[in-house]
Each structure stands twice: as C-alpha cells, then as structure tokens.
Recover the amino acids of this structure.
C-alpha cells in the first residue's frame, strides 16, 4: 500500500516507495492509499503510474463523468471546489519556489466545468468484431487508442458532429487507418467547422469561424490557434483592460491578436507574432481584409498579400509584425504598456533583459505555465513590483492553470 502525499505542479499526485523512490500517480488524491497501479514509465529515480485501486478514498473524490477522463481531463475525479482550491495553492507554491511570496484571490471561473472546450481532435478506432469505426482518444501514457461512446469536456455540438462524420464513414465502409484524426471546432453560437485529416495528404483548409470578444469580431481558422474557453478568456481580458493606462501598448506573442485588439484597439498598438499562420489571421483581424489562403485561386491570381508574403501590416494606429518577440526589442518603449502571453517555455532571456533596460511603465504577463512565469517575474523584480495576481480556470477538470501578473515599476 502506498500513501499519497500531495498534488504537485503538472497535475499528478506524489508518493514515496519504501526504497525512497518517488512515484507520480494519475487518479490518486492526497491522503488516499493506492493498493494497485499500472506503471506507464519506470525510470531509475522515479515511476509514473495510474492508480487502479484505492483504499480510504478522499472526501474530495467524485465519480468521473467519462470513462475516458484520464485521456482528456484527469481531474474529473475531484469535486470542482477542491480543484479550484488546489490550483490556487499550486500557484502560490510555484512562486514560493522562486522566493516570491504572493497571495491570490479565489480562482476566476464561470462555474462551467464541463462542455466548455470549443476545439477537439479525435483519433479513429476500428473495432474488428463490430466492423465499426469509433471516435477515440489515446490512453494516458501510451499510444494505445480507446474507443469512446461519450465525452463531456467539449461542447456537445462537437461530439454530435464527430458522431455524424464517423457514422458517414461507417455507412461507406471506410477504413479508420486511412485517417490521421478528426479535428472539429465551434464558435459561441454553435457553428461547427473542421473535418478529417487523411494520412499522407496535406491538411485541408476549413471554413473560418467568427466570434465576438469584448464587442469585437474575430475570424480564425479551426486548425489554427484560438482560445479554447472564450467565456473565461473574456474574464481575463476584462481584468487586463483595467490596467491599460498608457497611450501606447505593445502586445508580444500576440497570436491572432485577440488580447491587444480587444483591450487596446483605440491606442497606438503594436502586435508581434512569430507563427506565420497566426500572423495571417492577425492581419485579417487588424485590417478586416479577407486574405486568401496560400494555394487558393485568389492567392494565385495575385492578391496583394502574395507579393511579399508580408511580415508587416498596418491599419491606422495598429501595427502587426511577423517576428519573434526577442527579434524586435527596439519596439519596447519606456512609454508603452507591454503585454506578454508567451508559450509554455516563457520569455526569452534577451527579452527579459531588454525590459529591465528600457523599463516600460507596466508589464502585463498572462501565462499558461506559472513555473516559467515565476522564473521570468523573479528576474523582473529587480526593477518591478507585483501589483496584481489573478488566476483563471481556462481548462476545468485538467491540471492546466492560466495566471495573470500585473507588474509596475518600483
């Protein structure tokens, strides 16, 4: 029997074996005793496993909605109040590891802990006995696929459309191995776009979707980057908007532009993004121009975008740049509020050093990885102080945490 100690950043629970080796569990909560488990990774200094049998279940344990929960949303096994409490404590612990003491208010949520995802990618599983294709996910810790009959993490429109498409494949007696996956996305009104990816063929171009965020309309590709949980994302944007107090705003790692364009559109605004596909969508959102996709008839016919595959687009007071954040350091200004929303790896050291050199009046740092955020903030505290810490539950029933830090000059 193995007594579980606590949940750690990353979402697993940790315990210690008799020989001192650490074991990281999915499907085990603090205080529980694991009597049987399946090992998914066995290294010299640690083991990763899935708890299969539990004694003295935690008071916070609940029955998951989905049999496939470990594949999609492994925190379905705890009550939602405990999830929010745990995430709040993890953020404080992560920052404390970097010698930063913070206090956080209750996590911001719209209290919708299921049926919130607006994007889902399904694998296809062929059941030989039934000669039928089923939607599937990969088993956590392996490449094995498990067929699913229901999934509660995504919006119902997505699973309904997936079922419809797969029923069509079965009616035509298609083979599952022909397809890589099925990608679907829906907007807030429930309109669904996306489709099948065939093995060995380029990914198709799907119909763009549109959504309204803080009163502004955005166009985005179903297979591009866009926020998964728009209602909670809007809560974060409203908080960010409160801290835009300068005439100039620089939005780094801007993606398709939804942060800067939603909270600072009337300002002198510069948006920087390094991904070409995201920048193309950003350009549409800046100019309201329907830029054709590469390879389409309009693109080939000589649309202006084609002439130089533009790395710069401007409309009035708004400038968009296709570049890495650390390659446009000259745009950091002592008079511009700077917004950071980097990938999980956090900010490049050159960028942090430039911020400390130029000292913009305020830094707004939204992060999907509090660990790298704490590392970056630790460096910035040489010249900045933390004004606000707010955590948002963008991904209920998962360990993922979105954290917002507002920094001002000391």
């Amino acid at each position: 029997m193995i007594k579980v100690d606590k949940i750690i950043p990353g979402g697993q629970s940790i315990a210690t074996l008799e020989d001192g080796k650490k074991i990281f569990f999915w499907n085990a909560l603090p205080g529980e005793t694991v009597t049987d488990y399946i090992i998914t990774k066995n290294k010299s200094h640690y083991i990763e496993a899935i708890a299969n049998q539990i004694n003295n279940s935690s008071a916070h344990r609940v029955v998951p909605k989905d049999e496939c929960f470990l594949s999609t949303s492994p925190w379905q096994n705890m009550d939602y109040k405990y999830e929010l409490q745990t995430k709040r404590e993890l953020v404080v612990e992560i920052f404390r590891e970097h010698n930063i003491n913070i206090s956080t208010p209750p996590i911001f949520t719209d209290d919708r802990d299921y049926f919130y995802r607006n994007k889902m990618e399904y694998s296809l599983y062929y059941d030989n006995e039934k000669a039928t294709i089923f939607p599937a996910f990969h088993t956590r810790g392996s490449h094995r696929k498990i067929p699913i009959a229901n999934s509660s993490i995504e919006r119902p429109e997505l699973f309904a459309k997936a079922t419809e498409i797969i029923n069509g494949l079965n009616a035509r007696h298609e083979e599952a191995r022909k397809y890589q996956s099925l990608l679907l996305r829906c907007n807030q009104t429930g309109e669904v776009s996306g489709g099948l990816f065939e093995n060995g063929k380029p990914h198709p171009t799907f119909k763009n979707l549109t959504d309204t965020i803080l009163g502004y309309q955005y166009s985005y590709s179903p297979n591009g980057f866009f926020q998964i949980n728009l209602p909670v994302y809007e809560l974060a944007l409203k908080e960010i908007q409160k801290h835009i107090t300068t005439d100039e705003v620089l939005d780094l790692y801007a993606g398709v532009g939804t942060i800067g364009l939603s909270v600072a559109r009337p300002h002198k605004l510069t948006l920087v993004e390094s991904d070409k596909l995201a920048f193309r969508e950003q350009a549409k959102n800046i100019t309201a121009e329907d830029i054709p996709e590469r390879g389409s008839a309009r693109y080939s016919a000589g649309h202006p975008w084609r002439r130089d595959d533009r790395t710069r687009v401007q409309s009035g007071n708004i400038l968009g740049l296709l570049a890495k954040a650390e390659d446009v350091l000259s745009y950091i200004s002592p008079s511009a509020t700077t917004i950071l929303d980097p990938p999980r790896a956090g900010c490049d050291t050159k960028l942090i050093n430039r911020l400390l050199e130029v000292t913009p009046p305020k830094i707004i740092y939204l992060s999907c990885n509090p660990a790298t955020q704490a590392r970056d903030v630790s460096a910035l505290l040489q010249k900045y102080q933390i004004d606000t810490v707010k955590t948002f539950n963008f991904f209920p029933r998962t360990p993922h945490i979105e954290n917002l830090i507002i920094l001002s000059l000391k």
Q: What stands out?
A: The first helix runs from residue 69 to 72.
